[in-house]
Design a protein that fits this description.
The chain is mainly alpha-helical and about 250 residues long. It has one domain. The protein is built from 11 helices and no strands. The longest helix has about 35 residues.
């Protein structure tokens, strides 16, 4: 699906996203499993077992576990997304992925990424409070702020501004792409959804698979959007985007 010059090409983004994952399944799916899938599954299993024994609102331990799991999941999600963004930019730049270097780059930017996530989240929430649509628009404007921060070494506000510039004129296509990703994730979840009805273990297994695949798709997909917009708007050679990590 070829788009007008300067705008996002959905077909190319999907090809790059799934291409990167298929070429590096151990990095993308393995890392997503270790950083998000398994920790989230463990927390879900503990919560499910506690709920069965004592009830969700009758166990202080469950509440504490829930809070801990939230912060752990937030930390791991930031590291995962940043690592996969670096890995995607490296792969699309025709360089060999070095997992250790990718993680190092992600950890180096951890605090700025947390700050970016806070500003991003507050902006989206405020936008949703004003009749929902402004929140959606802000989300589409800022969706590639993290790749900007990683690849261009910009600060929080500069990354948001740069993301808004790159996504200008392509928000509709990005919105359609997000719908496609949601449908893909729903299909993946639906295939194993019936298994979750039988036991806590089956439910955790399904959630682990879905979270693993979704985590890989999110990291690679957002980076692929960034690369496509840079190429379309500025004619940037993708091989140059990974130079910052050299």
């Amino acid at each position: 699906m070829a788009e007008a010059p300067g705008k996002l090409d959905i077909g190319r983004v999907l090809t790059n996203t799934f291409g990167v994952i298929s070429r590096n399944p151990v990095v993308f799916l393995g890392l997503s499993l270790l950083i998000v899938g398994l920790p989230n599954a463990a927390m879900q299993y503990i919560q499910g077992s506690a709920t069965t024994l004592a009830g969700a609102f009758a166990s202080p331990a469950l509440i504490i576990t829930g809070l801990i799991s939230f912060f752990v999941f937030m930390f791991l999600s930031v590291v995962l997304q940043a690592t996969l963004i670096v890995a995607t930019l490296t792969d699309l730049g025709n360089d060999e992925i070095n997992l250790g270097d990718c993680v190092k780059q992600a950890v180096r930017k951890f605090l700025p990424l947390i700050g970016l996530g806070i500003v991003f989240g507050l902006g989206i929430v405020l936008g949703f409070m004003f009749f929902f649509i402004p929140g959606v628009i802000l989300y589409l404007m800022w969706i590639i702020a993290a790749p900007v921060m990683m690849a261009e070494d910009k600060g929080i506000m500069e990354s948001l501004k740069r993301s808004a510039e790159l996504t200008r004129g392509s928000k509709g296509m990005i919105f359609l792409l997000m719908i496609i990703f949601v449908i893909i994730a729903s299909i993946i979840g639906g295939i194993g959804g019936a298994l979750s009805l039988f036991s806590v273990t089956a439910s955790v297994l399904v959630a682990t698979i879905v979270n693993t695949i979704t985590g890989a798709l999110q990291g690679a997909g957002i980076a692929a959007i960034y690369v496509d917009l840079r190429t379309a708007k500025e004619g940037t050679d993708s091989s140059l985007l990974a130079d910052v990590f050299a």
